[in-house]
Amino acid sequence: MSRTRTPLFALLAAAGLFATVSPAATAQPEQRHVLLVSVDGMHQSDLAWYTATHPHSALASLVAHGTQYTHANTPVPSDSFPGLVAQVTGGNPATTGVYYDATYNRALLPVGTTSCAGVKPGTGVDYTEDLDRNKDSVDAGQGLAGLPASVLKMTGNPRTLIDPAKLPVDPRTCKPVYPHQYLQVNTVFEVARQAGLRTAWSDKHPAYELLNGPSGTGIQDLFTPEINSQVPGGPSGGDWTTDNAATQQYDSYKARAVLNEIDGYDHSGTTKVGTPAVFGLNLQSVSTAQKLPVSGGQAGGYTAGGAPGPVVRSALDFVDRQLGAFTAELQHRHLDQSTTIVLSAKHGQSPIDPTKLTRIDDGALLDGLNAAWRAAHPGAADLVAQSTDDDAMLLWLTDRSVAATTFAKNYLLAQSGTGNGATGAPKPFVHSGLTTVHAGADAARYFGVRPGDARVPDLVGLTVPGVVFTGGQSKIAEHGGAAADDRSVPLVVGGTGRGRSVGGAVETTQIAPTILRLLHLDPRSLAAVRAEGTRALPELDR
C-alpha cells in the first residue's frame, strides 16, 4: 500500500519527548510491525479533550502525525469480547459467533459433561475469569512465587491456566470447547503466523486465548495476568479493578511486556525472539476510572459538563505515559519508521453525563419474570436460562417459542419501579429501563442471523441512555449496549499523515484488514472480511 508516513521519532521529537537522531540511525528496516493499543472505556470525546488540553502529549503527537477517525463505532453488543474480536477478525457477532464473554449455546453440552450419550444440549458459556485454575491469583493459578512482582514470569500459553472442567462440551467429540475453538473465524494473528511473522498480545484473562483463533496457534506469546484476582496485600475482596491506582499498577505489567517485546524479547524479557509483527495490549485503567464512584478519595467518572473527573484524568495520563514509553522505545531500537501504532478501544462506557445515570436491579426484574412465567405455566422451569445485563439486557430462554419470547418482552415493558441515581437518591424508571426490546425472530434479525441460531440471544433489550443494571451503588457506568457512549471510540493510525481527520463513519472491524494491509498481507485472508465485505480504513494511502 502506498502511503505517506511521518516517522514516529520525528513527531515525538517535535513534542519534546526526545532528541532527533542521525539519518543513519533511522534507516528503514524491511519488516514492518503493527502495535495495537486498545484502551477499554475510552471515548472519542476523551481523546479530543485530552489532546486539546495536553497539546504536547504522546496522544496529541500520535493524532497530529496520524490519521484520526472521529466517528468510529464498535459492534453491538459493546462488550470486551466482541469488541476486541472485531478488531482482530474484521467481523461482527453474527459472523464471529462471539456475542459476549458470558453467553448461552444451544448446541453444546453442559459444563463438566464427561459421558455425552443422551445428554440434552444447551449450556451457559462462561469465558471469564471463572475459567481460571485460581481466579484469586494474578497468575491465574500458575503457582509463581513472589507475586505480583514476578507476574511477568507467567506462561505465554494461558490455555494451561484454564480448568477444562469449567468448559462447555462439544457433543461430537465429548471434549471441552476452549475459547479459541469457539471463535468461528480466523484472526490477524493466524494470518501473520501463516506468513512466517511473529505475534504477541497481552490481555486481562486467560480466556483471551480466544484470540489464538480456530487453529489454536495464532499468538506465540500471550500474556494474561488475571485482573479480577485479589491484590496481594490489599483489602479482602478487593481485586485490581476496585481501586484505580491498583488498576494502573496491573496495567503497568502488560505495558512492561510490550516494552520487552519491542526490545525483541518475549513478554518476560528473558528470551530473545525478535520484535513481533503484530502485537499489543489492552489497558483497563480508563475503564475502572469511569466505573468507580470514588477511588483514592477522588471522584470517578465525569463532571456534569462531560469533562473527565480527577480519576479519569489520572487514568488518561497513565495511558499517555505508556504510549510515550512505547514510542520512545521504538525510536531507541530504530523501529520507529517500520512500526505503525493503532489506537482504539474495545468499547466505551455509559453514561458520560452523571445526571443520566439510573441504576436498576436486574435481578429483581428477572426474578419477577420467572415467577410470572411459572404462575402462567404451572410446573414449568424458569424462563430465563442465561442473562447478561450490563447496560443492555441479553436473555437466552428455556422456551424459544413465539409465545415465550413475546411473554418475556411484554412482561419487561410493563415493569416500572425505582432505581437510584448518581448520588444514590431514588430514581424512578418505566419499561424496565428499556427503550426497545427485540425478541425471538426479531432478536435474530437485529443481529443479522437466522432465527433458531444456537448462539443468538432470544431477547435483546436496549436501554434508556444512562441505565445501568446493577443491584447496588458500586459503579456509575457500564458497557455492552448500543448507546453512543458505549460505541463511540477513538481510532487513530499513527504515522500516516499530518493530522488528517476523517469524519465519515467507520467501524472498529476495519482495523483487522488495515493491519494486514500495513503488513503487506491480503485482508481477504480473513474469513470475516470475506463474509462481511469489511474494508480497510480509508484515506491511509493518500
From TrEMBL:
Residues 1-27 form the signal peptide. Gene3D superfamilies: Alkaline Phosphatase, subunit A (3.40.720.10). InterPro entries: Alkaline_phosphatase_core_sf, Phosphodiest/P_Trfase. It holds the Pfam family Phosphodiest. Keywords: Signal. The keyword Signal applies. It comes from the Bacteria. This is Alkaline phosphatase family protein. It comes from Amycolatopsis carbonis.
